[in-house]
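To the team - nicotinamide-adenine-dinucleotide complex, inputs and output below.
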Amino acid sequence: MPRTIAVTGVASGLGRGVAERLEADGARVIGVDIADAEVTADLSTVEGRAAAVDAVLAACGGVLDGLVPCAGLGPQHAPERIIAVNYFGAIATLDGLEDALAAGSAPAVVMICSNSTTLTPGADGPIAAACLAGDETLAVQQAAGANPAVAYAASKIGIGRAVRRRAQPFGVRGIRINSVAPGPFNSRLLQEGLDDPATGDLIRSLPIPLGRFGEPSDIADVVAWLLGDGARYLQGTNVFVDGGIDAMLSPDRFP
Ligand code: NAD
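Output:
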């Protein structure tokens, strides 16, 4: 039986790379995006999230073996929309599909975090706290007027902690959940940052121990491994896939 795996943000970049890799491995991928996908839905709204969950449930018959909520907006977008898509869109998808995952075979989830979580001063504050409290109105209020880079990193801190908080309740239901924290990866999102005069030079000057930006296939290989049997004892953890940036900039942040 092929595994059935839902991937959001499937029309571009990392999500597309992940879906291509999973399909090459024989999985049935249910792709979700705002356009150009099997399931089209706007994950920035409550209605769009509910429609996405309903459509995925219909497509998988209520039984899902994997989930990768990859849809996201980078720091070139309005901070309110960043919070709505990156945190609340991803979490609504995750929680809306939890029962279907519990009915799946060796089910696993990989959430998409970011190495901006450890690179962005001021990100670990009230926006992330409001996200984790599930208060979208407050989170959006606090994001309004904030530096979009801070809102972006805050949304991803929320994702990383949401994963850790679900390690136990998902684990007892047989669902593994982990995250990856990509560094700069070639995609539309990165291109928007490179094209922005306020951030382009900063991104280009980032020191990367492995000497290059990531390609979607670099993250797809790690996500495929995290979804599979080789990662069967990983739960609630985060894997930096950033060419070594985080380790180089914070060599003593361990344990
Ligand atoms: P991308 O722009 O290439 O792809 C993002 C996808 O999300 C697009 O297909 C877009 O249509 C979809 N999307 C955006 N808003 C949506 C909405 N409201 N409803 C439904 N779909 C929506 O970007 P990417 O780099 O592939 O980003 C994928 C994920 O990886 C994001 O969560 C991003 O934060 C994360 N990430 C990317 C990088 C990087 O350097 N590229 C680094 C760290 C984390």
